[in-house]
Write a structure and sequence with these properties.
The chain is 34% helix and 34% strand. The protein has a 5-stranded mixed sheet with strand order 1-5-4-3-2. It is α+β, with helices and mostly antiparallel strands. The chain is built from 3 helices and 5 strands, in the order E-H-H-E-E-E-E-H.
């Protein structure tokens, strides 16, 4: 079981989503909290990504502290734009 932290920009992304999508994203966050093994964003990058339909949730896992920090949620186009900013 992991603790969940949110990046300062998380609310900006999450609040843009429709309420029904927010519920689906929140269910995935609970699975991430329970230790769902993630897929690396790209080789050599510390971010993990989970898919919820056409939406993506990006986070980092800090194993020593047992914390997962969520950074981004959005559709595929927003996800690609966010990735270019890394």
């Amino acid at each position: 079981m992991y603790g969940i932290e949110f990046d300062s920009a998380w609310d900006r992304y999450f609040e843009k989503l429709a309420p029904d999508i927010q519920k689906r994203i929140w269910k995935k966050i609970l699975r991430i909290k329970d230790g769902l093994p993630g897929r690396h964003l790209h080789y050599g990058i510390d971010y993990f990504v989970e898919e919820v339909g056409q939406y993506r949730v990006c986070y980092k896992s800090f194993e020593v502290k047992k914390v997962r920090r969520l950074y981004f949620v959005g559709d595929h186009k927003e996800y690609e734009k966010w990735m270019r900013g890394l």
